[in-house]
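Much of our argument rests on the idea that a fold can be written as discrete symbols. The record that follows shows the chain in one-letter code together with its fold in token form.
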Amino acid sequence: MRRKTRIPPAPLPQREGVDPVRVRLPADGAWPTVRDHLVERLSAGPGVIDAMLRDGRIVGADGVPVAPDAPNAPGAFVWFHRDLPPEVPVPFALDVVHRDEHIVVVDKPHFLATMPRGGHVTQTALARLRTDLGIPALSAAHRLDRLTAGLLLFTVRPDERGAYQTLFRDRRVHKEYEAIAPHDPEVPLPRTVRSHIVKERGVLAAYEVEGAEPNSESRVELVEVRGGLGRYRLTPHTGRTHQLRVHMNALGLPILGDPLYPVVTGPVAPDDFRRPLQLLARVLEFTDPVTGHPHRFVSGRTLAAWSV
């Protein structure tokens, strides 16, 4: 059986709550120097890797800067920090609703991504919390879409993260969402929606495949009606990307403020926070896999389309 490679600890500290980038040098040794491999692999632009090596910004496992002419060391690791583009601050509070030695539960605002990805790196819940709480090892046990507000669970200890992730994988977490969407008395509710959802990499919107075996299931209930709008309770039994948004749209009840369903709209300026998606992760309930304690958390947020 092939032995798993042990990854040494990062020799560089986090920067603004963001881990350094780790690169493993290829085992075949086809590149004569570390520099040659990084230039080809990272596609960082002319002169970028040379400048980073010259400035001592790429280091080995011992924390010593890699020399510009260092020979390739097959299987070794190097680390560096990316130059991060400026990000527009998300001007909403990230509220901690529970914290103990094992987990942190927060009430995430709209427009804040869960974890660093793409153009959202420091303006993410994970990076903010690592900095604000002083917990460098903090990790997300699951995620919410950037446009969705509500409850998020983070783990404090790396060796316990898997136990909490398994709760979500095995569907042992009860989640309830709240959404504001048009009300249509012709749509019979409550009902359970099942379909086969496909989300392709690089394509913004997911889609349903008619006739295919269902891989998603959501319970949709109408809670209240006001002025042509409905307040809905959504209970997902699976966790496909954009599942609730896709299912509400399939019912002819697209969630207010959704830039993808039913129609993909044009890009919004990064400082435009005027139209939040009216979707909120309201309830998170589970039995703690480490302590055995039952937890039930309820978001304190309200959806603007209903409260105004």
